[in-house]
Specification:
binds the ligand O=C(O)C1=N[C@H](C(=O)O)CCC1; alpha/beta; elongated; 4-hydroxy-tetrahydrodipicolinate reductase; binds nicotinamide-adenine-dinucleotide; lysine biosynthesis; Dihydrodipicolinate Reductase, domain 2; DapB_C; NADP; cytoplasm
Length: 249
């Protein structure tokens, strides 16, 4: 397959290596210093685009791919309030996009079990729940996209929570944050070069249940994005990465 990379930062560089190891060809690489190469003609050389840039540039990049008629896999986070609009554009105009807050297989298993656990916890209301996410200090958005997906999975399945709120701390101290009973706290921490750690904590007066995913490096995210490009290149429409996994059969 021919792949175009939008964003050649930490993720773009690893995706390139993994794509080549899977016998794909990188036909276009765009970063902030060669934006003039982002033309429909260049994009159309690719069977699929993989986009890992910034919250400020992702929507323009999506538009470029839609205008060029090339399927796009979006890894960038921090734009999810625009999902309904983008979904509509896919459905109305026949565009193709797949996005994930986290492409790693391990995190997608975690998402699935998180939803099941939240359902179980309905029977045990004396546990309160919160989400913690830790990432490197270069991260531009908070909470992490993964943290939002985890929180939404809890809110959809646990009757006592109806919205999430975020608190960002820049060191590892954990001040006891107080939130309303219906609110689910997502505590974001930014520490050194941490690739991504997410924990769901159910706490009661007598004990604590911690459910945790730790990324050791970025390779799992990158492999998932390449697998998503392989999966989507001949499809039409709007997809979340869940469509690639079938945990129910
Ligand atoms: N979904 C996932 O599995 C997953 C995993 C890791 C990171 N991410 C997300 O991916 C994004 C990128 O992460 P990263 O660690 O590679 O960041 P990074 O800062 O290392 O790389 C981003 C790159 O995008 C470039 N860029 C900026 N504007 C651009 C534009 N208009 N067009 C093309 N390139 C542009 C920057 O110069 C930079 O090189 C972030 O939003 C992050 O949250 C998602
Ligand atoms: O490094 C990042 O930035 C990451 N972003 C994603 C998120 O916001 O959840 C996935 C994990 C790494």
């Amino acid at each position: 397959m021919k792949i175009a990379l939008l964003g050649y930062g930490k993720m773009g560089r690893i995706i390139e290596k993994i794509a080549i190891s899977r016998k794909h060809e990188i036909v276009l690489t765009i970063d902030h210093d060669n934006l003039h190469d982002l033309t429909a003609e260049n994009l159309q050389k690719a069977d699929a685009v993989i986009e890992f840039t910034t919250p400020a540039s992702v929507l323009d990049n999506i538009e470029h791919c839609f205008n060029a008629g090339v399927p796009i896999v979006v890894g960038t986070t921090g734009w999810y309030d625009k999902i309904p609009e983008i979904k509509k554009q896919c459905e109305q105009d026949g565009n193709t996009l797949l996005y994930a807050s986290n492409f790693s297989v391990g995190v997608n298993i975690f998402f699935h079990v998180n939803r099941l656990l939240a359902k179980v916890m309905n029977k045990y209301p004396y546990y309160d729940v919160q989400v913690e996410e830790i990432h490197h200090t270069q991260k531009l958005d908070a909470p992490s996209g993964t943290g939002i997906t985890i929180a939404e999975g809890i809110i959809e399945n646990l009757d006592s929570k109806s919205e999430w709120v975020n608190v960002l701390t820049t060191d590892d101290k954990n001040d006891d944050e107080t939130v309303a009973d219906n609110q689910l706290l997502i505590e974001s921490m930014r520490i050194d070069s941490v690739p991504g750690t997410h924990t769901v904590i159910y706490d009661s007066e007598v004990d604590m249940i911690e459910f945790k995913h730790t990324a050791h490096n970025r390779n799992g995210f990158a492999l998932g994005a390449v697998l998503a490009a392989e999966w989507i290149h001949d499809k039409k429409g709007f997809y979340s990465v869940e469509a690639m996994f079938d945990f129910n059969s």
